[in-house]
Amino acid sequence: MKRRKARIIKEPKARGEWGESVFMMRAVEHGLPVSRPWGESNSFDFVVGKPGRFASVQVKTTTVKNGGGYVCAIRQNNAKYARGSFDFVAAYVIPEDLWYIIPAKMVAGLGYVTLCSNSEEAKFEEYREAWHLLRKAAGMNEETAAPHSEESVAEGEEVAMGPAGQRVQKALDFMRRQLK
Fold this sequence. Notes:
By secondary structure, the protein is of the alpha+beta class. About 25% of the residues lie in helices and about 25% in strands.
C-alpha cells in the first residue's frame, strides 16, 4: 500500500476527528462496511461488518515518539476503558502512516501501548495493518473484500467511486481545506 505523508494536526480533538475520517476511508479501501453510531456517548467510534456480525472499533491516533516507538494512549477522559467497551482498537501512527488493528483483549487494563517499536520486546507488531482481523470478526473473507482495494489497482490507475465514496471524499477535501 502506498504511504501517505500526513500533516500533523496540533489540536488533539481535531487530530482525533481527522484520524477517525482516515480510519473510515482506510476501512472502506480494505472492503469493510463501516458505520458510525450517532452521538459521542458510546465507548467506541465505529462498527464494521454487516447485520448479525458487527465489531466495534475505538480509533486512537499518536504522534508521540518515545525511545524506539510511538506511545498511544488507550484512555477515555484520562481513565482506562472498562472491559467490553469495544472489540478492537484501531491505532494510527500518523508520522509512519501505519495502522494497528489490535483486539481489545490485548489492551485490556492498559492505559498506553508502544507501537512501531524496533525493540525485541515489541508486543503489537503482529497487529500492524492487520485489517484481516476486522474482516474475520465481521464474518467476511478475503473474497468479499472491496474489488477496488489499493492492492488490486495498478499504479496511477483511477478507480470509479460511488456516490457515497464521493460524498466522503468531498468531506475529507473540505476538512483538509479547513485545516490549512
